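Risk register update: the risk of archive-format incompatibility is retired. Evidence:
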Amino acid sequence: MTRVWITRAQPGADATAARVRELGLRPLVEPLLEVRLLPSEPVDLAAIGALAFTSANAVRAFAPRSPRCDLPVFVIGAATAAAARAAGFNDVRSADGDVRALGEFVASQWSPTDGAILHPGAAEPAGDLVGALASAGLSARGLTMYETVARPPSAALLATLPDVRFVLVHSPKGARALAEVLERSPAPHISALCLSRAVAAPLADAELAGMVFAEAPSEDALMEILQASARRR
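Archived output:
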């Protein structure tokens, strides 16, 4: 059975593994990233009109620190939308794209008189959502809730690399971590399947059997290219 290495952090890794199994493939869950919550006081939303999330991890980090679920929530895609609804938010609006698409989506639905937008997120965000919103004339600020740190590969993973045919990569930071692993432990028989062109960029110099990125930055699109790639083997 074709083996697929899943590098994203938990709990997303297990969700991806379930979808890989549905395709009749064998997932190998060995995250190269780990999410760590950062200390934070309860969040004051008195002057906030809406929230904007670029990841499900941000929703999970934010929800325990604020009891309010009455604000509109703008999200980057389906997985983040699902996390927001699971956290109790009812007014969830998805851009179904990347950070740039989310910024444009918010600007099309929000005006300066509607109130400020709070963007809870990572210490090293994948894109500048706050800057994009400010450029559109909206009041926005970020709030650091968590950090994503590299997780060293286990000995078991390195021993299994010869059996892996595909590796799924969900973020530029994950791609950088993967590139470092492959530099020390070459695996030229593995093909990398990436969530987007931006995610694939750090792997440009890696020795791989192939590299493909999804045209739409979504888990659905990633599963489609995985299924197509597995059929071509």
